[in-house]
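Subject: for your reference before the review

Hello V.,

The reviewers asked for a structural picture of the protein, and I figured it would be easier to keep everything in one thread rather than splitting it across files. Below is the amino acid sequence we used in the manuscript, unchanged from the supplementary table.
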Amino acid sequence: MYNIRLERIGCTVVGGETLYLTVTGGCIERDLPLNYNFAAPVRSSNTKSISVVNTTRKPWYLYPKITNKFFTGLNKFTVPPGETVEYEIMYIPMTMTGSSNEAQHEGSILFGLPDGSALFYGLIGQAGEPLPEAELTFDVKARSKFEFSVTIRNWTKASQHLRLDAQVLEELEPGIPTTLEGPPLTDIPGLVVRDIQLVFLAHKPGMYKCLARFINDHTKEFLFFKLAFTAHEADTVVQIPFTMVTRELRIHTLHFRNPLQTVVSFAAKCEDPEVCSLTSFA
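And here is what came back from the structure prediction:
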């Protein structure tokens, strides 16, 4: 046991003489405290209650001391005589735990009691991947670029360099490209909110599910959006007017661009017998 002593602490009394106190204390080894375990997605919260029982006949006015900034609770609370109060402590992790960071977030909470004893508990937190910032759905036209924006926020006070990782999770057919694109890198100051423009393009009608992740490659922290697109039949590319006198031949050349990496064969037809075209070409 190590003795701690502090002498002649002045206590000023209004209208009277200054009183002097001598404070002593001691530290003893003790077993590891009971741990409270928390789990939450990063930047979300998890709350648990600690029961504080007052077995005396006087009220307790307690001022908990919490270590680790990811755990928080009331600075003070009262436990009436002979009663039990549930003290709530919240875990709000701002970094993920795991191989790329701390294995777990460790903290503690101390309740100093009026009789000089204390309640001491360990706090253990596990923070997983974040929840999506939003789940967005869109109706689009096939073969037309669709521009939209997502709102990202810097959850830290420091500037971040975020890399866009855009993924199309479900392709309708192999070899038919579906793209989700945007600025590859975004610099965003601390605690700033910013709109980012993205572009989606599908060549065939159907349902498409995508992810847009914004990753800090240094810390491995990220935020992401779940995106769902319903691509409908494409609009008419262009209307071609033919103006001429009767029995005159008029020719219009159509230009095709193949967006694929393979050869595509087209078949042409027209319901009007006065219009003829090549039947097929590649």
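For the response letter, the relevant points are probably these. The chain has a mean pLDDT of 88. Residues 32-128 form a domain with the Immunoglobulin-like fold (CATH 2.60.40.10).

Happy to draft the paragraph if you're swamped.

O.
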